[in-house]
């Protein structure tokens, strides 16, 4: 970490290789768009380098700091973009083909998009907890460290987020 902060290219490359897949997965679960995911992942690491260059690196947890950068970029992305309420069923490269069944593939894409829209209606912190816990597979203590919160706060955010998510998804099916 110290070498990366001193702008050592080898250290920065190691950090990138360690964190890029995790950050990419986090962003993908929030956007469901491979192209946007790729762009935002690159921006995360550019912001990381700019902050390090300006002497404004992480304070306590590097992983929490880099996930915060990713989270903020996702929030900015949705603020700049109008929320589309349609699903492009032709753009499904990341959905398994459903054993060759186009109906299953389309249904999976529609469900995935409905869940993504529902998650994006949660508060920023609730959406981040739900994404990290259930889509990224982190445990409560890891999420607490990433978000710089207590485990109790993460549990409360998860509880409220899941309750709200359930309500949103029930309304969508009515």
Q: Could you give a short description of this structure?
A:
This protein is mostly helical and 174 residues long. It has helices at residues 2-5, 9-31, 34-53, 62-80, 102-119, 124-135, 140-147, 151-173. The chain folds into two domains: 1-81, Rna Polymerase Sigma Factor, Chain: A; 96-174, Winged helix-like DNA-binding domain superfamily/Winged helix DNA-binding domain (Arc Repressor Mutant, subunit A).
Descriptors for this entry?
174 residues, mainly alpha, 8 helices
Q: Can you lay out the helices and strands and say which pair or pack?
A:
Blueprint: H1 2-5, H2 9-31, H3 34-53, H4 62-80, H5 102-119, H6 124-135, H7 140-147, H8 151-173
Helix pairs in contact: 2-3, 2-4, 3-4, 4-7, 5-8, 6-8, 7-8
Can you put this structure into words, describing what you see?
Helix 2 runs antiparallel to helix 3 (34-53), helix 3 packs across helix 4 and helix 5 crosses helix 8. By secondary structure, this protein is mostly helical. It has helices at residues 2-5, 9-31, 34-53, 62-80, 102-119, 124-135, 140-147, 151-173. The protein folds into two domains: 1-81, RNA polymerase sigma factor, region 2, helix turn helix motif (Rna Polymerase Sigma Factor, Chain: A, Orthogonal Bundle), CATH 1.10.1740.10; 96-174, Orthogonal Bundle (Arc Repressor Mutant, subunit A), CATH 1.10.10. The protein is globular and about 55 Å long. The N and C termini lie far apart (51 Å).
């Amino acid at each position: 970490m110290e070498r990366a902060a001193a702008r050592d290219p080898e250290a920065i490359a190691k950090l990138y290789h360690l964190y890029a897949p995790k950050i990419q997965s986090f962003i993908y679960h929030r956007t469901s768009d491979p192209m946007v995911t790729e762009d935002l992942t690159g921006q995360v690491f550019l912001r990381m380098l700019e902050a390090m260059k300006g002497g404004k690196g992480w304070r306590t947890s590097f992983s929490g700091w880099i996930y915060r950068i990713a989270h903020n970029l996702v929030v900015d992305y949705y603020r700049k973009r109008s929320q589309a309420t349609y699903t492009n069923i032709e753009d499904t490269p990341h959905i398994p083909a459903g054993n060759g069944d186009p109906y299953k593939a389309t249904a999976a894409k529609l469900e995935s998009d409905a869940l993504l829209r529902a998650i994006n209606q949660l508060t920023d912190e609730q959406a981040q907890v739900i994404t990290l816990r259930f889509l990224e597979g982190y445990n409560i203590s890891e999420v607490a460290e990433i978000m710089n919160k207590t485990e109790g706060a993460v549990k409360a955010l998860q509880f409220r987020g899941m309750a709200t998510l359930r309500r949103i998804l029930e309304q969508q099916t009515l």
